[in-house]
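Q: I have 75 residues here and want to know how they pack in 3D. Can you give me a structure?
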Amino acid sequence: MITALLAAEGVAKLGAAVGAGLAAIGAGLGIGKIGGDAMARQPEVMNKLFTNMIVAAALIEGVALFAAVIAFLCI
């Protein structure tokens, strides 16, 4: 009985770590996507795009942090 509970706790921690890792990977891919596509297609409006990209990157990072916190609270 005790070993089953310990195994379940280990699986929960593994799941939380995988969830936090996926959130970080998703955030990195999202920020890379907005940066690469926007400036490659319209380099002449870089200053206007830069401001919008900073706001979008902050929102993506906020969602990733929220996902990581929720993953670790599930333990």
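Q: Anything worth noting?
A: Helices lie at 2-41, 46-73. The chain has one domain: 19-73.
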